[in-house]
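FW: tagging you since you asked about this chain on Friday. Here's the raw sequence from the shared folder, copied in full. Didn't touch anything.
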Amino acid sequence: MKKLIEQQYLTGERALFKAHDLQITNTTFADGESPLKESRNISLEQPIFKWKYPLWYSQHVTVDHGLFATMSRSGIWYTKDITMTNTTLQAPKLFRRASQIKLEHVHFADAEETLWNCKDIEMTDVQATGDYFGMNSENIRIDGFNLVGNYAFDGAKNVEIHNATMMTKDALWNCENVTVYDSQIVGEYLGWNSKNIRFVNCTIESEQGLCYMDNVTLENCTLLNTDLAFEYCSNIDADIVSTITSVKNPISGRIHAQAIGQIIMDDSEIDPSQTVISVEHESRAPHAV
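HL: got it, structure written out here
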């Protein structure tokens, strides 16, 4: 049975260091670093965290209707098995080298450098604003995601995303094994240097996106204002239900679109016969060689 701590105002460094088996309700953790460092089996209901490093090296933690103020930065590192629901996080650099993370109805107001080098992540109905979200993390499943911030998921592995809206330059770089379903992505240079990437029923706008990739699949996707696409991509399998502004120097595979404004093949080391390109309607611009 958990001991109850209710409506407390806690200050000082390591206020509840190595605490375990606690139900903490309506409690504010004010000035003082690392208030719950090395804690175990902690349930937090309507907590307010105001200072740095609140949950480091913790295990088996639940947070419901929590508030993490700006100075609770770098708040959840090296923690294992944490579930967070209905929570608002104003601080940057939350979640690093943590695992078994479940987030539901969570708002990251400043998600800069958040969820770095983490694994085994489930997110449902999450909003985030900030650059470098999800860097080098793995085993991620997302349903309902709204992101504004550049360089998302750089170096991520084993990612499945459903029903997302992402405004993010240079997203999904250096990734492996990513599938994105029923989503809208707006941003330059999408997906470079990644492999085993699949988009299903997505709308994408990306200047010079989808380049330097291996095994890239697009199923029933719309590419808006997307130019110089598929440069140095191999093993392409793309069904595009819109016009592609331009395609440049694909290495191998298949590209089918409603129309392609321009096909540019100007690298003598690439064999054009290795890529089959077909359209529903003739493009208005000639091929460039």
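FW: The longest strand covers residues 214-227.
HL: agreed, and Residues 283-289 have pLDDT under 50 and may be disordered.
FW: great, closing this out.
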